[in-house]
Amino acid sequence: MDWGDLLAALALVLVLEGIMPFASPGSTRRTLALLAQMEDRGIRAVGGVSMTAGLLLLYFVRG
Prior knowledge:
Layout: H1 3-23, H2 25-37, H3 40-62
């Protein structure tokens, strides 16, 4: 893997992260308000599941 692959992956993350706020700012605002009310443990669990799913997908795609 070279720096170009890493930068391309980061660029894709930025594009994907920007889709919902661009398409539906109201829903994004409500979702973030709900997220702000969650306990740290719940947020950490969601982040862990998301990272695990991403690593598994990366393993199968690039494996």
